[in-house]
Amino acid sequence: MNFETEPALRRGDSVYLVGLNRSLHATSRKSIVTNPYAALNISSADCPRYRATNMEVIELDTDFGSSFSGVLTDEQGRVQAIWGSFSTQLKFGCSTSEDHQFVRGIPVYAVSQVLDKIINGAKGPPLLINGVSRPMPLVRILEVELYPTLLSKARSFALSDHWVQALVRKDPVRRQVLRVKGCLAGSKAENLLEQGDMILAVDKEPVTCFCDIENACQALDKCSDNDGKLKLTIFRQGREIDLIVGTDVRDGNGTTRVINWCGCIVQDSHPAVRALGFLPEEGHGVYVARWCHGSPVHRYGLYALQWIVEINGKPTPDLDAFLNVTKELGHGEFVRVKTVHLNGKPRVLTLKQDLHYWPTWELRFDPTSAVWRRETIKGLD
After folding, report:
1. Whether residue 148 has a cis bond before it, omega within 30° of 0
2. Mean pLDDT of all residues in 98-104
3. pLDDT by residue (tens digit) across 144-201?
4. Which residues contact 295 (CB under 8 A, 6 or more apart)?
5. What are the distances in angstroms from CA 124 to CA 61, 135, 140?
6. Do the Cβ atoms of 258 and 291 come closer than 8 Å?
7. Cα distance between residue 227 and residue 221, in whole Å
8. Read out DSSP for 190-251?
9. What start-end ranges are recorded for coiled-coil regions in this protein (predicted)?
C-alpha cells in the first residue's frame, strides 16, 4: 500500500475499508464518505486521561462496528486514512458513567507529516525505533482546546458580515469559525485567550479549521524574528481584538519520569490534567496519578487525583524539590502532607513513612535506549 496525502477525501467519495474483523480475518468493505471534516467533541472523563482534541475525522455511511479496524484506501490501494478507535465516557445521571468506543477515519496526512520529518531528519532528541536511533521532531503547538461554530450561529454573537464573508470565501465547505473551549494550564496562551473567544485570523489571514492553526504554528519555526508567537485576531464579547499569543514546543515523549513514595505514584502534571485549566498556585506541585493497596498513603487517605504541594511545610513545586524533601525523611517518621484536589480544595493530612515495605524509588525513561530504568532513592539498608 502507498501513503498519499492528496487529493483529500471529499463528501461522496468511494473508499474501501481494508482491515481485520473480530475474527482477525482480512476483510474489504466498500463505503461512501458522508463527512470528511467531522470535528471530534470528546468531553473530559471522571479521571483525567488522554482524549483527542482539535482533530477532524472522516465519517462513513456504513457502521462497521467498533471492533473493525484498518485503513481507508482508494481503488488503487492508496491509503487515504487510518480507521482508528476513540474512547469517550457516557454519563448517566449524576454518578454513573460508562466507557464507550467508536471508530472514525484519521486523515493520513496527520501521520505522513510527522513521518516525513523523521525520515528527512528532525531537530529533536533521538529515540530508538526498531533498533535504529532517529531524531524526533519537536512540535510547536498552540495549547488551546478549540471547537467549531457554524457561521450562521456566530452571527447571533454579533460577528460582523465582513468577517462572515471573509471566512466563507476562505472555506466555503466548512462555513465555520473556531472558538476557544479552554487553555491548558501552564501554557503560554493561558490568561491571554478566554473561553468563548472566536479566532478569526492569524497574521490577518482568515482561519477556519484546526489545520490552519497547526500550519501557522509550524510556519513559526521557519522564521527567526517571531519569538514563537502568533499574531491572532479574535472576536470577544462584541469586540475585535488583536493579540500576540505564545506557542509551546513539545517533544511528544509524554511522561518520562515517575516517583513512588509511600505507595503513591507522583509525576509532573500531564496534558490531560493541564487540560482541565487549573494548576495549584503553590508552584504547581507534583501530581498523584495512582496509589497502591495496603500502602501508607492508602491507610492514611492520600489518594490519586490531587497535587502534593508541601511536605512538612516545605514546598514541592516539582519532582526535584519533592525528592529533595522526601530524602530527608526517616523510616517510621510521621509526615505532614498538604494537597490540593482537582476541584481546587486544599487538604492537610499526616501519614507514617514505611521504608521497609515501601521504599522510595524512581522510574526514568531513556529515549536513546527506549528503556525505563528503576533506581531506589531511599530504603532500609
Report:
1. no
2. 89
3. 999 999 999 999 999 999 999 999 999 999 999 999 999 999 999 999 999 999 999 9
4. 262, 263, 264, 354, 358
5. 41, 5, 12
6. no
7. 9
8. TTTS-TT-EEEEETTEE--SHHHHHHHHHHHTT-SSSTTEEEEEEEETTEEEEEEEE-EEE-
9. none
